[in-house]
Write a structure and sequence with these properties.
The complex is a heterodimer of chains A (636) and B (254). Chain A is of the alpha+beta class. Chain A has helices at 15-22, 28-31, 43-55, 93-103, 110-130, 162-179, 245-252, 316-320, 330-342, 359-365, 367-385, 440-460, 473-491, 498-513, 519-539, 551-575, 599-602, and strands at 35-39, 58-62, 80-81, 155-156, 183-186, 189-197, 200-208, 214-218, 221-224, 257-258, 263-269, 292-296, 313-314, 354-357, 394-403, 406-407, 420-422, 604-610, 616-622. Helices cover 37% and strands 15% of the residues of chain A. In chain B, β3 and β4 (73-74) form a beta hairpin. In chain B, the strands form 2 sheets. Chain B has a 5-stranded mixed beta sheet with strand order 2-1-5-3-4. A two-stranded antiparallel sheet of chain B has the order 6-7. The termini of chain B are far apart. In chain B, α2 (118-125) packs antiparallel against α6 (195-208). The chains are: A alpha+beta (636), B alpha+beta (254). Chains A and B meet through α3, α5, α6, α11 and α12 of A and α1, α2 and α3 of B.
């Protein structure tokens, strides 16, 4: 199959309008004749389900949580970008587009990113109308803050809980459609597989997490908004139940997986404290607006941070990047932290940490102003570490946070399986090799509110009158395969728990396919991961049954998919013999340690097709840059 | 640290439950409460016993999934803290801890510490939104919102829907939860057109579920991990009263 991105041509600022005009429409009376299945109820899923229902489609939405409000979008702290230029500081759609392509280190599709920047302004209007309580100025108008990778203030926020407020907005819009009977919401149902019949996505197979019952659901199209795969690393800032299963099952059924090695490390997380650690907690990047990052100048420093005089501190980001300072993009900040820790200048009990210091900001604007901006984050930090960040600097260290890779989609957000769509973090489309802060909320809502509800009509319109139900033998076959797989996991009866395996896998991926990657390391990982996977399938222990509530079984099925994904991530990282954005191959760096791209050979999206023998075939979607010149990113 | 746990075990919604005792050694004070349960669960699994079922997800105190009674107090009673944010340094070495699921008729137990909180969703579905379709919104800055109102609305909107308020209330009332959403939207200009219908519908739905009545015990605000206060309940009651007494045809703009 050839990869057709369906990206429009012509002047970039006209492409989305022209495309909307060119694609087929389903007339309002006919929309109710279609049934669309939406899997996942985070920002992308809830906004898509609500909007599709408002348009008149019949929607069935699925969440594995007890409520649609729990999706991990809720944990996003800092904010959402939009090219409103309310601050009159020179922002524009063009600048947001440019910043996003550049921030992604020139590995994203220009047409998609421009559209994202265009609809960003509508998202803010929509959210404000829903009653999302954004931060405001005294005059009653919306406030903005600045964020990493940008020199304008375009980030809208609701204290440190922007994701929560935007998700509740989408959840409320969804609830309104549930009440109206236009959305049937299935709670505690985990998608186990997608059903592909006659070459098209026709439905899904789900497992009821309380009873273990496996059922089939048919639809005219299937939309996956199931998030990213950061928990492959075990320790990440993602919620514990985040997983790749829906996307991975779709991949195994024919959907290409794009750029799996593009995984983002967030520079400001609370460092690990012990072996029992179950997850890492993010401290919003917005803290870098007011906090100053430093380490002691000397490796053998033993004094407490407040006792170290100014001239023996190294504010290394301000020193190395005078114009962006503490606001350099995430990948740059993360590697810089690793570098100073590798030099032995890291702080805290493990030596894997740097200071994020608010003393200057508190002196400048006063403690109440800092409290108003970051109060909940400071409180959270104190709860976890037992230290008061108003008095002593925070300690932070990079951690896995977001995955730019995901299911390959075209401009309509359709995967390589006709009728199967992927939205939000589950797709690969807009962030290239590195996502800028406050852009994930923007993309999830852009896809769900403003892109998919229009583009899906192009697929549905010619399919009026096709009957879709679960009587097709593909449903029974898929159900059988799902049940067999679960039985196989339960029957192993070995000697190691799921978490034990997941932790071991996560460490392998972090060590070999984390912040820095080498050819030797990746080759080693490609030996070790399959070996550990063998062990998983022969020595796993789960207690309980498949026909009841069984959290270990749920986890095991997800970890089984992570084992396969981990291998593909390493393969992808090995193939991409350059450094770009979050993907840092050690041998490809400039003298100052910056990522060295190879535009000549690697300006492509890696789209991997799963083959029957458990291997993959690489397809390349070449990227053209007509508007943004590919230059070395510089934040100096 | 050594900890003795007594945990409610219940195989299913219709099964009888019982408290089971577990002894745990080598608990680190830096562990979170849920990490301590993770360690116990791995031990149970290796012994061939079913691990303890409890709901959790973000482990950052924002998703609202986790929560159970710890020594009789929802989320353990530490100020503005969910169970996942509680750390073992809050307990003494040798402590005995009792863990039970939320106890409320409206939240039936599904298994062990996991309960069904869908009643909350049904309250939101009854009217906890602004009826605005995607695409029809005016420019966000066309409707200024006084900063103080926006802040107050935000404070109400930080509710995570965990259910601690209901679990701690002697009456099992959901007034804090319901009033938080009513207040969030009723405080904003965007929420005015539906203000009084919303209040009536949400209160009606709340009463239809198996929640009790509010008699101002203030237990809810004491355990709310987001610090939501009962002033919001007064605000909801006031709007409810106005809704009940005003003329039906014109209520929206009174």
């Amino acid at each position: 199959m050839t990869l057709d991105s369906k990206a429009p041509t012509g002047p970039i600022e006209k492409r989305w309008d022209q495309h909307r005009f060119d694609i087929k429409l389903v007339n309002p009376a006919n929309k109710r004749k279609f049934r669309i299945l939406v899997v996942g109820t985070g920002l992308a899923g809830a906004s898509a389900a609500a909007t599709l229902a408002e348009l008149g489609y019949n929607v069935e939405a699925f969440t594995f949580h007890d409520s649609a409000r729990r999706a991990h979008s809720i944990a996003a702290q800092g904010g959402i970008n939009a090219a409103k230029n309310y601050q009159n500081d020179g922002d524009s759609i063009w600048r947001l587009f440019y910043d996003t392509v550049k921030g992604g280190d020139y590995r994203s599709r220009e047409s998609n990113v421009y559209r994202l920047a265009q609809v960003s302004v509508e998202i803010i209007d929509q959210a404000a109308a829903q009653g999302v309580p954004f931060a405001r100025e005294y005059g009653g108008l919306l406030d903005n803050r600045s964020f990493g990778g940008a020199q304008v203030s375009r980030t809208f926020y609701a204290r440190g809980q922007t994701g929560q407020q935007l998700l509740l907005g989408a959840y409320q819009a969804l609830s309104r459609q549930v009440q109206a009977g236009k959305v049937k919401l299935h709670r505690r149902k985990e998608m186990m597989d997608v059903v592909v019949a006659d070459g098209q996505a026709r439905g899904i197979v789900v497992r009821d997490l309380t009873t273990g019952k496996i059922t089939s659901h048919a639809g005219d199209a299937v939309v996956l908004a199931t998030g990213g795969y950061g928990t492959v690393f075990f320790l990440s800032t993602n919620a514990k139940n985040c997983n790749v299963t829906a996307a991975w099952r779709a991949h195994k059924r024919g959907a290409y997986f794009a750029n799996p090695c593009f995984t983002q490390i967030h520079p400001t997380c609370i460092p690990v404290s012990g072996d029992y650690q179950s997850k890492l907690t993010l401290m919003s990047e917005s803290l870098r607006n007011d906090g100053r990052i430093w380490v002691p100048s000397n490796a053998d420093e033993s004094r407490r941070p407040n006792d170290i005089p100014e001239d023996e501190r190294d504010y290394y980001l301000e020193r190395r990047y005078p114009s962006f300072g503490n606001l350099v993009p995430r990948d740059v900040a993360s590697r810089a932290a690793k570098k100073v820790c590798d030099q032995g200048r890291g702080v805290g009990p493990t030596g894997l940490g740097v200071y994020l210091d608010f003393a200057d900001a508190i002196r400048r604007v006063g403690r109440p102003a800092i409290e108003a901006k970051y109060g909940n984050l400071f409180e959270m930090y104190e709860k976890i570490t037992g230290e008061d960040p108003y008095e002593v600097p925070m300690r932070i260290y990079p951690a896995i946070h977001y995955t730019m890779g995901g299911l390959w989609v075209d401009y309509n957000l359709m995967t390589s399986i006709p009728g199967l769509y992927a939205l939000g973090e589950a797709n690969f489309s807009d962030h290239g090799a590195n996502r800028l802060g406050a852009s994930a909320l923007m993309q999830g809502l852009a896809d769900g509110y403003f892109v998919l509800p229009y583009t899906i009509g192009d697929y549905l319109a010619p399919r009026m009158g096709e009957t879709v139900d679960t009587s097709h033998p593909a449903f029974a076959e898929t159900e059988r395969a799902v049940a067999e797989r679960l039985d196989r996991l339960l029957s192993i009866d070995g000697s190691r728990t799921v978490d034990d395996f997941h932790r071991a896998l996560g460490k392998l991926v972090w060590d070999y396919c984390g912040m820095e990657r080498t050819e030797e390391g990746l080759n080693e990982a490609l030996q070790k991961i399959p070996a550990l996977r063998e062990e998983f399938w022969s020595d796993l222990k789960i207690v309980g049954t498949a026909d009841s509530l069984n959290q270990s079984l749920e986890k095991a099925a997800r970890v089984a998919d992570f084992f396969e994904l981990a291998e593909l991530m390493c393969k992808d990282a090995l193939d991409r013999d350059e450094s770009c954005g979050a993907h840092f191959r050690v041998k490809h760096q400039h003298e100052d340690g910056e990522a060295k791209r190879n535009d000549e050979d690697y300006s492509y999206v890696s789209a991997w097709e799963a083959t029957d023998n458990g291997d993959w075939t690489l397809h390349k979607e070449e990227l053209d840059f007509e508007y943004v010149k590919q230059t070395q990113r510089s934040y100096k | 640290m050594h900890i003795t746990l007594h945990v409610w075990r219940q195989a299913g919604p219709d099964a009888d439950g019982t408290m089971e005792k577990y002894e745990i050694d080598d608990v680190s004070p830096d562990m979170s409460f849920l990490e301590m349960l993770d360690v116990l669960n791995d031990d149970l699994t290796l012994k061939g016993e079913e691990p303890i079922v409890f709901e959790h997800d973000c482990r950052e105190g924002i998703c609202g999934s986790c929560g159970f009674m710890i020594n009789g107090v929802a989320h353990g009673g530490k100020h503005h803290t969910t169970a996942c944010q509680l750390h073992m340094r809050s307990f003494e070495d040798g402590a005995t801890i009792y863990i039970e699921p939320w106890r409320s008729a409206a939240f039936p137990v599904l298994k062990d510490l996991m309960v069904d909180r869908n009643a909350f969703d049904r309250i939101i579905e009854s009217g906890g939104y602004v009826s605005v379709n995607t695409g029809s919104a005016p420019d966000a800055n066309e409707i200024p919102v006084p900063k103080a109102n926006a802040e107050r609305a935000f404070e109400a909107a930080t509710c995570i829907g965990c259910g601690a308020c209901v679990a701690q209330c002697p009456n099992g009332a959901a007034h804090l939860f319901t009033s938080a959403k009513v207040s969030h939207l009723n405080l904003l200009p965007q929420g005015q057109p539906e203000r009084f219908q919303r209040t009536e519908k949400m209160v009606a739905q709340m009463e239809e579920e198996s929640f009790g009545s509010c008699t101002n015990h203030r237990e809810c605000e004491a355990v709310c991990p987001k610090g939501i206060d009962i002033d919001f309940i007064a605000r909801m009651n006031r709007d409810y009263l106005r809704a009940q007494t005003m003329g039906r045809k014109t209520q929206n703009y009174r």
